[in-house]
Amino acid sequence: MHPKARIHADPVLEVDQFDCLPDSLVLLILNKVEDVRSLGRCSAVSKRFCGLVSLVHDVYVKIDRVVAVDGDAEDTLNLSSPKPRNIFSHFLKLMLFTIIKPFHSMRNPNGNGRPLFAQLSQHSPAQVLRNFTHIRNLRVELPSGDVGTEEGVLLKWRAEYGSTLQSCVILGGTRVDRRPVGGEHEPSLEDNGSMPESFYTNGGLKLRVVWTISSLIAASTRHYLLRSIIKDHPTLTSLVLTDADGQGTLCMGAEQLKEFRENQLSASACSNRTQVPACNMKLKYAPYLELPGGIALQGATLVAIKPSTEGSNGGHTSRKETDAFISGAFDGPFKVAVKALTKRRTYLLEMNGF
């Protein structure tokens, strides 16, 4: 009778192929992941991954929903419903829920077994990001735009900030239509390159002023909310805060982030946002624009905004840099709209700080 043969595991199969990869290559892969949820899941794979996740340079945070500080998952705001118009007035009392769930399994690298993010349901986005120690490029996406508009209305804005507003451009239209292929539009009799008289009498100018103020408030509120993140991440060289609707984008580069840290932030006395400085505005208008992709934009308006007194805080930007910022603010057919509007007559406006 033959003795039973013992089965031994092939020692080759016991080798973890990931252990053969150098940390620099794994970190390069994790930088391509970017998404904070996916990085949270990666951190739960092993102690090695957990340590490397905190060293990633590029991080993308997508906020789908938020819950009240004293609430729980049942109190989650449903941001897929008609967009809340006052989300930013309550934002400081709201915090992330879904983006932090993957981090529940993360452990401290010191091996004490304690969760890296204790009581995550009570942590703010800034506290979650605080565990990433080498962030260079950060992109945050909010669930919806900040400025409520009627259906069919176009409103987009892009703002550059240092410690205060440096530049802002706003593109609006009272209606976006799909024009039939091959269809023609007869130019309005009032479109002689100048602002029509009806623009002043039918509330057209007032509407543009409301768009401008609302967009600046949204931008200054986002800017104020970033202060703790910027303070906690001295390695940041690029910061972008946008929304899923593509309505508004706030961006800060390396020089602007440096200037933000060196100067005191001027907060508005009336709310939790940065004070908007006195500004000069250049407004351009076209009753009708035909854009690529079969899009027609009615009441097209472009507003370029600069602080009235550039200098110590805001720095100085040349005319060439300003034009480049305006022309590159939007993509696709809206980039064409900006190019067409820049050729129109310019109307100068002034606005006090608020």
From TrEMBL:
Protein name: F-box domain-containing protein
Organism: Panicum virgatum
Pfam families from the UniProt entry: F-box-like
Residue span, F-box domain: 18-54
